[in-house]
């Protein structure tokens, strides 16, 4: 059966750990796996602009012996004259996998139905699961075992990043705190899904409005841009609503003394996080950015092995 990775809970806790183990192995020996030798081609489709996703997938596919085919929807029929399902039927006869950075989660779900090659969510409005694999790899490198750690997210709790932290975090057995205004809380159905997973893994999800309460004793402090692509017209309102959730030196001082700071980037310095935190000794954002490469290579290898 073809496996897809459309949201963080498409993999079990054991599978998540397996992918992270493989990522660590591939990081140690970057050229060890040639699952895409041929070269096989992977279609990497972009509706949204990108730096880290584009580079890490293109380089990673090449590392695995394959050829990345970068497609812009602005220069293709996808989303115009052709449905995602029809595009998938064309691509699956020529490529080994499909990676799509898009807006609506529904498009990813449609393109995956009946498709005989793996489909990977490289970002949607609802989730960013590839980023979370990289983040978990980074946290594991710096903190050791993931299970039992407390991760605190600050800002827009209804964002794709917050949703993925909630799901991926509890899948790893972590305690995830989301600090946000009530109007920016994570979707109830996603929290419910996370609670079901947490009951099996020993993790938890806690929604808070007090940022310092959320930071207290945390092992990992994380935030994301307050103004995601497609929401630029909301910038002033978001800066007003989310201002107290900026990650500052005070935030870090309340967290565990050995806490680390992560951010998926790009960061709006001075808005959701102070530059002193980004450039400070507890920041591991550059390791995190590099780990997109290793985590996504591991994901592709793992998905191809499932077929």
UniProtKB/TrEMBL annotation:
* A Pfam family assignment: OTCace_N
Q: Which Gene3D superfamilies match?
A: Aspartate/ornithine carbamoyltransferase
What is this protein called in UniProt?
Ornithine carbamoyltransferase
To which species is this protein native? Microbacterium stercoris
> Which catalytic reaction applies to this protein?
carbamoyl phosphate + L-ornithine = L-citrulline + phosphate + H(+)
Q: Which family does the UniProt entry place this protein in? A: Belongs to the aspartate/ornithine carbamoyltransferase superfamily. OTCase family.
Report the InterPro entries cross-referenced here.
Asp/Orn_carbamoyltranf_P-bd (IPR006132), Asp/Orn_carbamoylTrfase (IPR006130), Asp/Orn_carbamoylTrfase_sf (IPR036901), Asp_carbamoyltransf_Asp/Orn-bd (IPR006131), Orn/put_carbamltrans (IPR002292), OTCase_ArgI (IPR024904)
* EC assignment: 2.1.3.3
Which HAMAP family is this protein grouped with? OTCase (MF_01109)
By which gene is this protein encoded?
argF
Identify the metabolic or biological route this protein is part of. Amino-acid biosynthesis; L-arginine biosynthesis; L-arginine from L-ornithine and carbamoyl phosphate: step 1/3
Superkingdom per UniProt: Bacteria
């Amino acid at each position: 059966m073809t496996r897809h990775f459309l949201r963080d809970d498409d993999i079990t806790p054991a599978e998540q750990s397996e992918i992270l183990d493989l990522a660590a192995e591939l990081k140690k020996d970057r050229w060890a796996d040639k699952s895409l030798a041929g070269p096989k081609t992977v279609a990497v489709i972009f509706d949204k602009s990108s730096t880290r996703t584009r580079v890490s997938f293109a380089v990673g596919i090449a590392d695995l012996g394959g050829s990345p085919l970068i497609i812009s929807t602005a220069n293709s029929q996808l989303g115009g004259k052709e449905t995602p399902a029809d595009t998938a039927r064309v691509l699956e006869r020529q490529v080994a996998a499909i990676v799509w950075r898009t807006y609506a989660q529904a498009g990813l779900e449609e393109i995956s139905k009946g498709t005989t090659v793996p489909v990977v969510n490289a970002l949607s409005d609802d989730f960013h699961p590839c980023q979370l694999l990289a983040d978990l790899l980074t946290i594991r490198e710096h903190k050791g075992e993931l299970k039992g750690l407390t991760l605190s997210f600050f800002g827009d709790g209804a964002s794709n990043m917050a949703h993925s932290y909630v799901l991926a975090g509890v899948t790893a057995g972590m305690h995830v705190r989301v600090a946000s205004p009530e109007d920016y809380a994570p979707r109830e159905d996603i929290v419910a899904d996370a609670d079901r997973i947490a009951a099996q893994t020993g993790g938890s999800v806690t929604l808070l409005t007090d940022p310092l309460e959320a930071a207290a004793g945390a092992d990992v402090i994380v935030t994301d841009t307050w103004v995601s692509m497609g929401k630029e017209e909301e910038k002033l309102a978001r800066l007003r609503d989310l201002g107290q959730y900026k990650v500052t030196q005070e935030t870090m001082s309340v967290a565990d003394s050995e806490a680390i700071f992560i951010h998926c980037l790009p960061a709006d310095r001075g808005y959701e996080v102070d530059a002193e935190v980004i450039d400070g000794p507890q920041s591991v954002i550059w390791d995190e950015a590099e780990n997109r490469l290793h985590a996504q290579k591991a994901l592709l290898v793992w998905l191809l092995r499932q077929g």
